[in-house]
């Protein structure tokens, strides 16, 4: 299957069976279906068109927060928006389960891809804090591994209070002091590999996710099950899809509209750097956003 990677912008190809959620299918940047879908979703939810990352408008009035985003797209997003990528275990640090109140209501978008399965309980607080971080018109793009079984969320460590993961005899174990002071030890931990291996705290189901999202108070939720072959996005499984949650109806502020109009006019009139595919996409962008 031939496609253009919407993250690095390179034309490439991959066997159809290689287009999976987690396996790298772009040989240039190592992106997979999940990461390309996150960026396609961000483009469509902000601009109503599917733009590759290098054609995103530069809108420094739009503020975004990344929670452990990958460098393949986080570095480019910093050049496009007022965007900050953060981590739980290193600088710049951000604890989703205990965010400073000064951050509430500050973000047009939040990206948390495969994060919420790793935060300590109660996971309800994680969804509620995403809601609090958003502006009234803000949205978040979330992804977690989940099943389509009818069961709810399964917490592996429901009484986690003060805990530490340590190496004992060459194996990782978790030692937890519960609220009543008693000690419990967990073996056979499941780690998800990434920049830093993270322990799986829970198993989500689609039903459980819908309940958590509803309880957090989100205005709207949509499950991103759409294939988009031009960007190498093909979902071979009906689970663990990206999710868009909105705090309120989408709206751009006056500063963002001014920036967008300037970007659209630049791309429309600068033929030297505006090949026909880009011109077409930017014309559609202006039309869909009612800026022409």
List the helices and strands and how they pair.
Blueprint: E1 2-4, E2 11-13, H1 33-47, E3 59-67, H2 71-80, E4 81-86, E5 107-113, H3 123-133, E6 134-143, E7 146-147, E8 154-155, E9 162-168, E10 171-177, E11 183-186, E12 191-192, E13 198-199, E14 202-205, H4 206-216, E15 220-223, E16 243-246, H5 254-269, H6 276-288
Parallel strand pairs: 3-4, 3-5, 5-6, 7-14
Antiparallel strand pairs: 1-2, 6-16, 8-14, 9-10, 10-11, 12-13, 15-16
Helix pairs in contact: 3-4, 5-6
Question: Can you summarize this structure?
Answer:
With 292 residues, this protein is an alpha/beta fold.
Describe this structure as you would to a colleague.
This protein is of the alpha/beta class and 292 residues long. It is built from six helices and 16 strands. The chain folds into two domains: 2-146 and 200-251, Vaccinia Virus protein VP39 (Rossmann fold), CATH 3.40.50.150; 157-195, no CATH class. Helices cover 26% and strands 26% of the residues. Helix 3 (123-133) crosses helix 4 and helix 5 packs antiparallel against helix 6 (276-288). The radius of gyration is 20 Å and the shape is globular. The two termini are 36 Å apart. The mean pLDDT is 91.
What characteristics describe this protein?
Rossmann fold; globular; 292 residues; alpha/beta; 2 domains; 6-stranded mixed beta sheet; 3-stranded mixed beta sheet
């Amino acid at each position: 299957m031939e496609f253009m990677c919407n993250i690095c912008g390179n034309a490439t190809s991959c066997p159809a069976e290689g287009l999976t959620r987690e396996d790298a299918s772009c040989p240039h940047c190592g992106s997979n279906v999940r990461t390309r879908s996150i960026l396609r979703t961000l483009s469509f939810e902000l601009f109503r068109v599917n733009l590759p990352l290098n054609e995103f408008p530069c809108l420094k009035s739009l503020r975004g927060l990344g929670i452990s985003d990958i460098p393949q797209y986080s570095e480019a997003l910093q050049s496009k928006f007022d965007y900050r990528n953060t981590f739980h275990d290193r600088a710049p640090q951000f604890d989703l389960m205990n965010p400073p109140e000064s951050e509430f209501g500050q973000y047009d978008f939040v990206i948390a891809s495969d994060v919420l399965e790793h935060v300590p309980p109660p996971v309800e607080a994680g969804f509620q804090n995403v809601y609090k971080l958003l502006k009234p018109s803000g949205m978040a793009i979330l992804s977690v591994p989940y099943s389509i079984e009818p069961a709810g969320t399964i917490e592996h460590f429901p009484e986690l209070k003060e805990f530490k993961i340590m190496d004992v005899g060459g194996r990782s174990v978790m030692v937890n002091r519960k609220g009543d002071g008693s000690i419990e030890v967990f073996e056979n931990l499941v780690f998800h590999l990434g920049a830093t291996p993270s322990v799986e705290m829970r198993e989500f189901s689609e039903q459980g996710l819908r309940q958590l999202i509803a309880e957090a108070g989100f205005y709207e939720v949509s499950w991103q099950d759409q294939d988009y072959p031009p960007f190498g996005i093909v979902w071979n499984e009906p689970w663990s899809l990206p999710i868009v949650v909105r705090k309120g109806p989408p709206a751009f502020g006056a500063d963002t509209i001014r920036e967008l109009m300037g970007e659209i006019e630049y791309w429309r009139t600068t033929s030297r750097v505006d090949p026909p595919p880009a011109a077409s996409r930017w014309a559609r962008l202006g039309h869909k956003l009612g800026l022409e």
